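haha ok so turns out i had the wrong file open the whole time. this is the CORRECT one, sorry everyone. sequence first:
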Amino acid sequence: MNIVCLDLEGVLVPEIWIAFAEASGIPELKRTTRDEPDYDKLMKWRIGILKEHGLGLKEIQDTIATIDPMPGAKEFLDELRSLTQVIIISDTFTQFATPLMKKLGWPTIFCNTLEVADNGEITGFKMRCEKSKLTTVKALQSIGFETIASGDSHNDLGMIQASKAGFLFKSTDQIKADHPELPAYETYDELLAAIKAAL
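then structure:
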């Protein structure tokens, strides 16, 4: 019994924080898990910048409303879901992901939750579990699934390496150079072919 575990941002949809950095004119917010492996540190830093600029959840959701999945992402996901079970495992937050899930045809997503004050200020975040991607893959394996995983960033490496087959997708040159043992693909056709071969 196979299950495919995919990252969301950078794989199926553009990076939300990069889009928001551009929309808000705050270039520091372009920093992502491709640059900072410590997600906790990255999120606390982002929340500090939002507070400094008086920005909250509404402003980010307004930007998210303008984001579409990457060209071909929905078709790739539809075909993949016709072949096997698929879960998106993301370090994003329910409040960010929901509008994007609608555009992707409501696939299953496991992600985290933001803590938001009544005035819309983002005050903190609640992670679903420690090392959520690796932990989720190991939990799926413990109930009889063989996992196939793909992602683009530092925080995807654990689930990719722990799976029976794992692939980098649209990753950085640095991550690809650091992990030459991991097959790396740039197109959905290539990734779909690799996953099909692993099923």
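The CA atoms of residues 108 and 184 lie 24 Å apart.
again sry for the mixup
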